[in-house]
Amino acid sequence: MNRIYENLSDPELLNLLGQEKQAAFLCIYKRYWSELYRCAFKIAPNQKNCEEVIHDVFLLLWNERELTNINSLKDYLYIALKNSILNRRDSKINLLKTPNSKPLPASFETEAEEHFSYPELNEIHDRDLERSAGMIPADDEQKKVTLG
Q1: Any idea which of 28-37, 72-81, 117-126 has the lowest mean pLDDT?
Q2: Domains of the chain by range and CATH?
Q3: Closest by alpha carbon to 73, among 126, 121, 8?
Q4: What's the average model confidence in pLDDT over 63-69?
Q5: Inter-CA distances, 59 with 62, 69, 89, Å
Q6: Does the pLDDT of residue 110 top 50, yes or no?
């Protein structure tokens, strides 16, 4: 990798990434991969799953390189990591859902939600998840949380 890129700040790398500079992407990847891996491994200690989640995060960054206006690269990556973990958790819940399924154990909940302060969004997400899994009766619509 070009040493010039290693000394650039995150905003400078993002600017070059928007210009489709692969060297800037590679620098971002090398700068944040191990940090994101450690965080993901704390949440889901499975090497293969962690690598897949991080792959998703960097794929998203590359695919949205021209569309996003990222103020903080580190925040963007961690939020993308959280969302990727939650999406994988949701897909596993949907795969495990059967007519006679039991609620998942509390240990299935990820630590990712504790690292981010989005209580309203997490509450909405959890209620939607429970409702879709049939854990909350449909007449419990009175307690909807709205964003405004």
Answers
A1: 117-126
A2: 3-88 (1.10.1740.10)
A3: 8
A4: 81
A5: 5, 16, 19
A6: no
